[in-house]
Design a protein that fits this description.
Elements: H1 3-17, H2 31-37, H3 39-63, H4 71-99, H5 106-125, H6 128-132, H7 138-145, H8 147-163, H9 168-193
Helix pairs in contact: 1-5, 2-5, 3-4, 3-5, 4-9, 5-8, 8-9
């Protein structure tokens, strides 16, 4: 893995977002490319650490939770939640793609999913950087980051439609399934690792 692979992956993710037909030219869709795309998970973890740190501070300030949740436990829960739901979703999609008779397109879907996750994670984090530098308050930062949630849903829908080849209804269902799975994993790990603190952020 080198800087060119990362740049191509992020460029391809952006092109998928804007429905640029050249997006497929940015990805290595081979089995080796699939393995390298998991680098996107490793690159996402420091970004998630950054956003989770700001979330923990914001929760402590806004809801006075600082004494209820330790920083280390909160961050551990967030990172573990990301890894677990990522693995479960891709495993589930392997089976779902076979059920839909679209297994031939699963590898390209996995590759674009992985790089797209890094892309949307960075999109969420960027508006938080000025807050970390003290330029504007946390409330403003998280409000500015909210469009990244819509960007994430749009991206997931686009790759389900254009890369996996699902029809509009099933593609929307895949997006909804991912949201439910993510929230469920987050909720479960929050209850297991942070009992008494409520739902994991």
């Amino acid at each position: 893995m080198n800087a060119t692979d990362i740049t191509n992956g992020l460029t391809g993710a952006w092109r998928i977002t804007v429905r640029d037909k050249r997006a497929k030219d940015c990805f290595d869709l081979s089995a080796e490319g699939a393995m390298r795309s998991f680098t996107a998970l490793l690159l996402s973890l420091p970004v998630i650490f950054f956003t989770s740190t700001l979330s923990w501070r914001f929760a402590g300030e806004a809801f006075d939770l600082g004494e209820d949740i330790s920083f280390g436990l909160f961050i551990t829960t967030e990172l573990l939640s990301t890894i677990v739901y990522w693995a479960l979703f891709l495993a589930a999609m392997s089976r779902i793609s076979r059920m839909m008779r679209l297994e031939a397109y699963y590898t390209p879907y996995l590759i674009t999913y992985n790089w797209g996750t890094l892309f949307t994670t960075l999109a969420f984090a960027l508006p938080l950087v000025p807050h970390a530098a003290g330029i504007y308050p946390a409330t403003t930062a998280f409000l500015l980051a909210m469009p990244a949630i819509a960007l994430l849903a749009w991206y997931r829908y686009q790759i389900a439609r254009e890369v996996l080849g699902a029809e509009a209804g099933p593609a929307a269902g895949i997006v909804i399934f991912e949201v439910v799975l993510s929230l469920s994993v987050d909720q479960l790990l929050g209850m297991l690792l942070m009992p008494g603190a409520g739902v994991s952020a």
